[in-house]
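Retro notes, structure queue

What went well: the backlog is down to a handful. What didn't: a couple of records were mislabeled last round, so from now on we paste the full input next to the output in the thread. Example, using Glutamyl-tRNA(Gln) amidotransferase subunit A, mitochondrial from Anopheles minimus:
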Amino acid sequence: MNRLPLRVRALSECFRNKSLDPVAVAEQCLAQIELQKPLNAFVRVASAKALKQAECSRDRYQKDKAISVLDGATIAVKDNFCTKDVHTTCASRMLEKFIPTYDATVVERLQAHGVILLGKTNLDQFGMGSGCIDSIFGPTRNSWSEDLNDDRFRIAGGSSGGSAVAVAARLCYAALGSDTGGSTRNPASYCGVVGLKPTYGLVSRHGLIPLVNSMDVPGIMTRTVDDCTAVLNAIAGPDSRDSTTVKKRYQSIPATGEEFSLKGVRIGIPIEYHCDGLDTEVLETWTVVADMLESAGATVKAVSLPNTASSIFVYSILNQCEVASNMSRYDGIEYGHRSQEDSSTEQLYASTRAEGFNGVVKNRILSGNYFLLRENYDKYFQKALKVRRLIADDFVQAFKQVDILLTPTTLSDAPLYKDFVQSNNRDQCAVQDFCTQSANMAGIPALSLPVRLSSRRLPISLQLMGDHFTERTLLAVAGWIEREVNFIVNYN
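Corresponding output:
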């Protein structure tokens, strides 16, 4: 196999000078997906659609009429985004046969920029998980695993594990994930790729099958910060079909250049993120990068986010309450799985949900309904909303002092599957989402960036968080760190 360029911009240049052809690249990616089936990154491959799009891209380049830098780049889409005429299952039996009649806005916009859609990627069922192991298609295996057999492989992280592995294994150039409490950044961290959760409302959620409406954000996974910027520029901006998007016109972010200076940039180190369970090598990486930023002229200081200790509990309660509400649409009547046991309406509902949902989804529905009971509403849901406001206020106060927060993304490198499954889904998420979920509750942008390999030869990543709509600064700082650590060159 010919090694393709690592970066989208280099790929586009190869298309322009005719040293590469979009059809040949698409065919090579499709062949690699077949060869790398044991990773279980893709749950559905759209070969015919991809090759047709590649032919259109080739025609544009031959006429010197390429649409954008993304024209001809191969992408994958998490299987909870609607894709016209391509199954969208949420890795569940409930939607196993669902074929949407429209594209999600983010998919539509990417295709308008000339990308080639290779197919749909694996996830935890309905996005409820942090390992990409709770899927009707089976678990996704991290491409950095020492052994892919049985239970000796490393988890990919979740819930967007399939998308992260697709990018890390070089099966595509970019992938869409969704991020409710870290579901883009967590797998990006474990798989050694860039993972961006934009500001809530910057990117349309239309066509993203909802998990938690007040926190869900389409996420981006790429190998480089520049590629991530290109994808964000393609998909961000107002959408009349999604009332939660901001109405202000999106201003494209330029590619981050070598000339970016850290002088005057204020970096905050949240003291609460130095927590129990933080791996020594992650802490060391955190310290090294903070010192690197300070040496380059940035101001680095400790800050406090005092409500961090309550954050994961609040997130859990609100998540389950909104899940209970969102999952009620799956009743066997309008679309999705329908049980054959229909002796009564109640029996149809009960049997449909019992057959269509796995244990994780059922547990969250039951818990959410418990929290929303009249006698529990104030005690749990209302109180959680109040504490969520305090958590958001912590960030407001922090960003009066600093421009960017630097934290770990995950507490360790990717765990072994056999160790990960020793805990239940709730406990897994409490650990895996510790550093990430607060950004979703505050609605701020956050990015995971690979920095180096651990002693086990697995990626260690750090997280950058910024104030609302400060993606430009966030990506610029991330780009500077990326050039300094050179992860993509050293380890790809």
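Agreed that this is the format going forward. Reviewer comment attached to the example: The first strand starts at residue 42 and ends at 45.
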